[in-house]
Automatic annotation (TrEMBL):
Signal peptide: 1-29
Protein name in the entry: Secreted protein
Gene Ontology terms describing biological process: DNA damage response
Entry's transmembrane regions: none
PANTHER family recorded: PERIPLASMIC IMMUNOGENIC PROTEIN, SLR1258 PROTEIN
Keyword Signal: yes
Keywords, sorted A to Z: Signal
Source taxon at top rank: Bacteria
Length: 250
């Protein structure tokens, strides 16, 4: 086996490292708001930029559940069906559109007495109900009165703004504008001037932050304790857009 002299081996190793670095920079994604220079074409600057717009939600989606217990599966099914029908009638009576009410899940399981050798003492059936497009000023009233209709669990509350689409477009525009400012600074620092945009890529998920969702354990606890009103503070939704923009430099 031929031996490679030490200077030649060191040069080969260095070349391998440089080659690996170039591949990594070309194929890897840069962190948000970090600019990178295209290693294959030194006449390009590629910039990633992320911007955020805050918007106040005006609608909500609430996930309820109706749980019923009885001695046997047939009895608990009949009881849960009756309880759910009562809840659905209540929701419709509040003025909620029938198209905004959906039964989302069903579950049946035994109830055990763990103190007596895992003995089955009955059965529990749970039906999930999702109510969407609730005006924000009606959410608190709906939650506080729902327990009287037979709703005994509130799983989560999601907030949505009807202005989400236009807010996302605004964030997208700001992200592109920010990328240009960064690219101009990099080009100037390199003794170059910024040319035309050669490529724009949207890399954020459009629906990623459409809803702001909260678990509703505290809401359920308040209802169970007999609270007459439940304060709702939706805050703001963060609408985020992220882009990668490539510019020519000259």
């Amino acid at each position: 086996m031929r031996k490679m002299n030490k200077p030649l081996a060191a040069a080969a190793a260095a070349a391998a490292v440089i080659g690996l670095t170039a591949c990594t920079q070309t194929t890897g994604a840069a962190p948000a708001n970090q600019a990178i220079v295209n290693t294959q074409n030194q006449n390009n600057i590629q910039v990633q930029s992320q911007e955020e717009v805050k918007v106040v939600p005006d609608k909500a989606e609430v996930s309820f559940a109706v749980s019923s217990q009885a001695a046997d599966p047939k009895s608990v099914q009949d009881l849960n069906s009756t309880d759910v029908d009562k809840v659905l009638s209540f929701l419709k009576s509040t003025g909620i559109d029938e198209k905004s009410i959906q039964t989302s899940s069903f579950g049946l399981q035994p109830v055990y007495d763990w103190n007596n050798g895992q003995k089955i003492t009955g059965y529990e059936m749970r039906t999930g109900i999702v109510v969407s497009d609730i005006p924000m000023d009606q959410v608190g009233t709906l939650l506080s009165s729902s327990i009287e209709a037979g709703i005994n669990t509130i799983d989560r509350i999601s907030y949505l703004s009807s202005k989400y689409d236009e807010s996302y477009q605004e964030a997208l525009k700001k992200a592109v504008e920010t990328s240009k400012v960064k690219a101009e600074a990099m080009a100037a620092a390199s003794g170059k001037s910024l040319g035309e945009v050669t490529n724009v890529q949207e890399i954020s998920s459009y629906n990623e932050n459409r809803y702001t969702t909260y678990n509703a354990d505290s809401a359920t606890a308040s209802l169970e304790s007999g609270a007459k009103a439940l304060a709702i503070e939706p805050g703001q939704i963060s609408v985020t857009a992220q882009v990668t923009v490539t510019y020519s430099i000259k």
